[in-house]
Amino acid sequence: MENQPNRDVSTNLMVVRERMRAATMRAGREPSELRLLLATKTVDASRVLAAVGAGELLLGENKVLEGEGKASALRELDSTVRPNWHVIGHLQTNKIKNALRYADCIQSVDRTRLLEQLDKRLQFEGRSLDIMLQVNTSREDSKYGVPPEDALALARAASSFDTLRVTGLMTIGLLGASPEDARQSFRELREVRERILAEGIEGVEPYELSMGMSGDMEVAIEEGATLIRVGTAVFGARPYPDSYYWPS
Ligand SMILES: *Cc1c(COP(=O)(O)O)cnc(C)c1O
What is the pLDDT of residue 141? Predict the structure, then answer.
């Protein structure tokens, strides 16, 4: 009999897709307004490939070098798959070159200096890039992201670079005892989007709301998420604590 070590990945994916469907229905939203991004940190390429084989083509990594390695490992395993990669973790300016080798979007842009350095490299490469602005809606010192009250200024700064298109906003909701604890964070991200859209800034059209993870996706969907980022619910528990990826 054929060995199917990654069968759990496709089963888990079915469960997640059903959760997404049920939550969009409850919220009176169209399922087509919502996409799934798989957070692949610590997950090895063969398990990621199982998810890609099950139809998931939007992937995100926190650490740039890990993402770059995984993107090429996937290509080696199967040169026919072309997933889109997003950077969803803190981006240091000295990793920009590596990020641009594989990433289609950087969701974690949270400061002007990063905009400047991205623009510089993109000018050199003669191309443009989709970015999202990461907003620290939970106001925890331990998380990256621009404070909500500074997001509009950062959006204005982004619009001065022709190489950058702001396609959305990203946040990590408050991680509390209950998923409900994240609701205020998600609501705030939506309000930040309204404020930015109302300004009609050139090159800044943040329709995407990247918010919601394994534990709080339903709340995020109710609050208007267009992109949820899911790891554990698909790949199982991670071997490292999240503090390895997020500042603690
Ligand atoms: C790990 C991670 C996720 C996914 O978290 P899970 O709880 O495993 O679903 C989403 N977003 C970011 C930025 C992450 O680092």
Answer: 72
Which tens digits make up the pLDDT trace of 20-34?
999 999 999 999 999
What are phi and psi for residue 193, nearest 5 degrees? -60, -45
Closest ligand 1 atom to Cα of 108:
13
Distance 230 CA to ligand 1 centre (A): 6
Identify which of 21, 25, 88, 43 has the alpha carbon closest to the alpha carbon of residue 61.
88
> Which are the contacts of 217, defined by CB distance < 8 A and separation ≥ 6?
16, 19, 20, 23, 225, 228, 230, 233
Distance CA 142, CA 135 (A): 13
Contact 105, 131 (CB under 8 A): yes
**CA atoms of 141 and 143, how far apart (whole Å):** 6
| Segments in the chain forming alpha helices (H) | 7-26, 45-53, 64-77, 96-102, 112-125, 151-159, 183-199, 217-222, 232-235
For residues 132-148, give the mean pLDDT. Answer: 90
> In angstroms, what is the span from residue 143 Cα to ligand 1's centroid?
13
Q: Ligand 1: distance of its center to the CA of 189 in Å?
A: 17
pLDDT at 4: 59
pTM of the predicted protein model = 0.95
With CA atoms as reference, report the closest residue to 234 among 30, 81, 59.
59
